[in-house]
């Protein structure tokens, strides 16, 4: 009998030891599960429909309007749900991390705290943002950045751009149809001024076929004849725009990715300021080659961003790039390379009708799509961004 009791005790020890190991594993997995939530204290989290905490300290509930959700909606979800706001008790505060797509909980000082996170349709969220009187920059960053219509370009200035074949980025400006290229960071209104985030827009339709410079020079600051033409345009909405410093780094080649174009335009790599000055201060310009490259979307976006722009003439790249048009359009950048020409002084950069990026003789007339930067204080006052309901603007 004594021997049997010893075997029984040994069996109990095995069970207890196994339970301890399981408990450690479960605790570890729970820790990994809740790692996405950023807090300033060590609390456990749970999501549920009723106020049942159990051993958890923070309770999350997710809603689509007033409808409870089983889980947090995924980023770029099919229902176009975006984060709207959160309500917590015990004075806790939620800040939404748009990059990580996760809440940051602050001022979490008490256990048994409930936070309700509300998600709404993109258009509803945009209407809410418009009603809050925030700037257009803020609304695009807070609402549209959560959808697959916009993406950060991951340059050192990390601009937020509209991407894909047909994003809803239409806006009424100058009593005309324009489209939003994106929110550009570190844009200066004076050469020595502080940079700020400003919305960059482009006219939807060309103003005509115009030479880059009719006298045969590729120096935009000379000024080029096209520069003079653009500055003379009568802008009914001129109160919404301001001077901007435009980067004019010269291109020494066209076999560049969007990221390398961006660095070349700023004189960081490539030909830099030769033969032209590195920057120009003005109100109306043209797109950069990098604008075209970074506008690509779709499942092949990552592949296209690793592809030189002169190889963008594939359906996966130009076919998913809303800045592609089936005509040649001028860019603001010039070049120091002769390519097929006898001298660099007669060449500027252009987006070709077949979707590639290359050069063209400046005395030839090609399509011109004016580009401007809105003032940082401009607000979006209505619309959904579609071609039939473009965004409206005001100060």
Give me the secondary-structure topology:
Layout: H1 2-33, E1 38-39, E2 45-47, E3 58-64, E4 67-69, E5 81-88, E6 93-97, E7 102-106, E8 113-121, H2 122-131, H3 136-142, E9 150-152, E10 160-162, E11 170-173, E12 176-187, E13 196-203, E14 209-211, H4 225-231, E15 244-247, H5 258-265, E16 279-282, E17 284-285, H6 289-294, H7 301-305, E18 329-334, E19 347-351, E20 357-361, E21 365-367, E22 371-373, E23 379-382, E24 392-394
Parallel strand pairs: 1-7, 2-3, 3-8
Antiparallel strand pairs: 3-4, 5-8, 6-7, 9-10, 10-12, 11-12, 12-13, 13-22, 14-21, 15-16, 17-22, 18-19, 19-20, 23-24
**Envelope shape:** elongated
Figure out the total of helices.
7
Unreliable stretches (pLDDT < 50, length at least 5) are: 1-16, 18-22, 24-55
The chain-level mean pLDDT equals 84
Question: Rg, please?
Answer: 27 Å
How many domain regions? 3
Strand content: 25-35%
What can be said about the biggest beta sheet?
Answer: 7 strands, antiparallel
Q: How much helicity do the residues have?
A: 10-25%
SS-derived structural category = alpha+beta
Straight-line N-to-C gap: 92 Å
Count of distinct strands: 24
